[in-house]
């Protein structure tokens, strides 16, 4: 307990980037940053070792890392990350949305991958530090500053065991639309050959290996003219799981909403927020298994009115069509439905401080 408190209160050594991008060049980059292509001037780095705990917290110029070829993460993939955003407010400041939830999930991911648990307050302070020093990078309008805290095993060794040394970093990237062209609705491909996660696996952890396993089926989705891949459960190959990087919701003709239950899927913070908002509005919400055959039948009968995906990067993205080797089917009229539109507006208004925040989700970034 004493060591945890000490780590949480440690001071950050701040070394501003002497070669930061000019204001004019930054303004040009912020006009159309896309997603994950443009990066800010700084990064946070905190070291860990079994004998010293967390130490040497610093904010420094964003630069390449120098690691040994035998660095454990390169061989055993001991790595986790988070995705979160800072939003520009009308008064020119910036806020974070539920950063404490990201901190908790990061610790849960670390526990699953046998990594050290970073104190939540240290995680949050690291995030606040980078938003503060790179505050001019937070876009106005509909954009946001995407924050990527991550940690990996950095010990130089080839033994199959948890690393005894780690690096925790936070980098930042101004972000616009996740999908190119700002699509009204996306088309998704059902993967019959591959699964994302199995019971007892790492599906509920936010680790890079989960995403690496989804790259081939994602490529198959693109080859079939789709934007994303959706996975089925690993046991029966029957139940809808999640997309390669987003949770799914289904809206029915009686106004009710369903989303697949947690277990092998990522406990999305956007997912949890939407469930809360829907319940606040008196909408009947369930978290229960939903079969791919039932999805098709409900779409064809009209019982299913909307399907949408959600996540930090894309917020809410309507699904217009589902394709598979068994044939294709359309959701509603193939566009964005009223429930998805309204939930998106409510969520984004709260995130940007433009609507009441009854659950205390929004925090000042600096």
From TrEMBL:
InterPro entries: Aminotrans_IV, Aminotrans_IV_CS, Aminotransferase-like, B_amino_transII, BCAT-like_C, BCAT-like_N, BCAT_family. Keywords: Amino-acid biosynthesis, Aminotransferase, Branched-chain amino acid biosynthesis, Pyridoxal phosphate, Transferase. It is an enzyme of class 2 (transferase). CDD domains: BCAT_beta_family. One of its GO terms (molecular function) is branched-chain-amino-acid transaminase activity. It comes from the Bacteria. Pathway: Amino-acid biosynthesis; L-leucine biosynthesis; L-leucine from 3-methyl-2-oxobutanoate: step 4/4; Amino-acid biosynthesis; L-valine biosynthesis; L-valine from pyruvate: step 4/4; Amino-acid biosynthesis; L-isoleucine biosynthesis; L-isoleucine from 2-oxobutanoate: step 4/4. SUPFAM superfamilies: D-aminoacid aminotransferase-like PLP-dependent enzymes (SSF56752). Its EC number is 2.6.1.42. The keyword RNA-binding does not apply. The keyword Amino-acid biosynthesis applies. Its cofactor is pyridoxal 5'-phosphate. It catalyses: L-leucine + 2-oxoglutarate = 4-methyl-2-oxopentanoate + L-glutamate; L-isoleucine + 2-oxoglutarate = (S)-3-methyl-2-oxopentanoate + L-glutamate; L-valine + 2-oxoglutarate = 3-methyl-2-oxobutanoate + L-glutamate. Belongs to the class-IV pyridoxal-phosphate-dependent aminotransferase family. This is Branched-chain-amino-acid aminotransferase. It comes from Sphingosinicella rhizophila. The lineage of its organism: Bacteria, Pseudomonadati, Pseudomonadota, Alphaproteobacteria, Sphingomonadales.
């Amino acid at each position: 307990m004493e060591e945890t408190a000490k780590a949480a209160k440690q001071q950050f050594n701040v070394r501003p980037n002497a070669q930061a991008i000019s204001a004019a060049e930054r303004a040009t980059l912020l006009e159309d940053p896309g997603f994950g292509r443009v990066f800010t001037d700084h990064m946070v780095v905190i070291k860990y070792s079994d004998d010293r705990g967390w130490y040497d917290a610093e904010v420094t110029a964003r630069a390449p890392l120098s690691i040994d070829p035998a660095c454990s993460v390169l061989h055993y993939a001991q790595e986790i990350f988070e995705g979160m955003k800072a939003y520009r407010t009308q008064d020119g400041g910036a806020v974070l949305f539920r950063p404490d939830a990201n901190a908790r999930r990061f610790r849960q991911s670390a526990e699953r991958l046998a990594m050290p648990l970073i104190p939540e307050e240290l995680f949050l302070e690291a995030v606040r530090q980078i938003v503060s020093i790179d505050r001019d990078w937070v876009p106005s309008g509909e954009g946001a500053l995407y924050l990527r805290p991550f940690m990996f095993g950095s010990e130089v060794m080839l033994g199959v065991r948890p690393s005894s040394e780690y690096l925790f970093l936070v980098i930042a990237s101004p972000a616009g639309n996740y999908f190119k062209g700002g699509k009204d609705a996306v088309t998704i491909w059902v993967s019959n050959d591959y699964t994302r996660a199995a019971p007892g696996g790492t599906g509920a952890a936010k680790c890079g290996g989960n995403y690496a396993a989804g790259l081939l089926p994602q490529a198959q989705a693109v080859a079939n003219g789709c934007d994303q891949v959706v996975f089925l459960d690993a046991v029966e190959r029957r139940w809808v799981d999640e997309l390669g990087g987003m949770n799914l919701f289904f809206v029915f003709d009686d106004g009710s909403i369903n989303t697949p239950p947690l277990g092998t899927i990522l406990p999305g913070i956007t997912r949890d927020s939407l469930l809360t908002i829907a319940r606040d509005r008196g909408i009947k919400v369930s978290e229960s298994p939903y079969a791919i055959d039932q999805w098709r039948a409900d779409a064809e009968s009209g019982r299913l009115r909307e399907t949408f995906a959600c996540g930090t990067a894309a917020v809410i993205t309507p699904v217009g069509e589902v394709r598979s080797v068994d044939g294709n089917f359309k959701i509603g009229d193939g566009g964005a439905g009223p429930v998805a539109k309204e939930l998106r507006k409510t969520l984004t208004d709260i995130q940007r401080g433009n609507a009441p925040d009854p659950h205390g989700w929004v925090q000042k970034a600096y």
